[in-house]
Amino acid sequence: MDCSYWFYVLLALAIAPPLVPNSALLAGAGALAAAGGLSLPLLVLIPLASAVLGDLVVFSVGRRSRGRALEWLSRNARRRWMLEWVSGRIHRYGIPAVIAVRFVPTGRGVGGLTAGVVGFPLRGYLVGAGIAETLFVSYTVGLGYLGGQLVAGFGPAPLLVGPAVSLLVASVALGVQRWSGRRLDRAAR
To answer: Where mainly located (predicted)?
Structure first.
């Protein structure tokens, strides 16, 4: 059996859990696809299916163990604040909030858990999670692929594309988070 099949299996297993950072892995896989080692369509479809399945599991845990999930989320101040923030957004905006929370650090796990806890409809959650994961997987693999194309022929440089794209995406997300936090602080005054 070709070793690339095992890569796809490991990729699916690594992407499913929402608490595992996976941007570098997806971008690195995109760079490997640019080098011709992996199939680009499979690099989008497999992580997409795996991520939505992982999101669904977290949502189901929130739905089935509401009391324990609320207790866990309420144990520390940051998670409690995140629960209140996500819950408010989900009640107010619905599917767009499910999509947006995917792009907040730790939002994939807390967002899915919260959506389950507050009784958000399963169909709406799947639509939101599907759209969010499609965006995330597509742009992360795509950026890795483009980066791999740019550094093709530069020796081991394609191996650095994944971490570089991950740092870029994390920096942009952190900048947006800080900017929006400052806006919220100003609005609260």
So the answer is: membrane
- Over residues 74-115, the pLDDT tens digits come to 888 887 888 888 899 999 999 999 999 988 878 888 899 899
Kindly tell me the burial class for residue 92, based on how many C-beta atoms sit within 10 Å of its own C-beta (0-12, 13-18, 19 or more): exposed
* Contact status, residue 104 vs residue 136, Cβ threshold 8 Å: no
Question: CB 186: neighbour CB atoms within 10 A?
Answer: 8
Calpha distance 21→69 (Å, rounded):
21
With a CB cutoff of 8 Å and minimum separation 6, the contacts of 30 are 40, 43, 140, 141, 142, 143, 144, 145, 146, 147, 148, 161, 162, 165
Q: How far apart are CA 137 and CA 143, in angstroms?
A: 10
Helix (H) or strand (E) holding 160: helix 158-188
Residue with tokens 């997409």: 48
Query: Are the C-beta atoms of residues 38 and 7 closer than 8 Å to each other?
Result: yes
pLDDT digits over 126-177, tens only? 999 999 999 999 988 998 888 888 877 665 655 666 666 667 766 776 777 6
Contact 113, 144 (CB under 8 A): no
Residue 115: closest CA among 126, 103, 131: 126
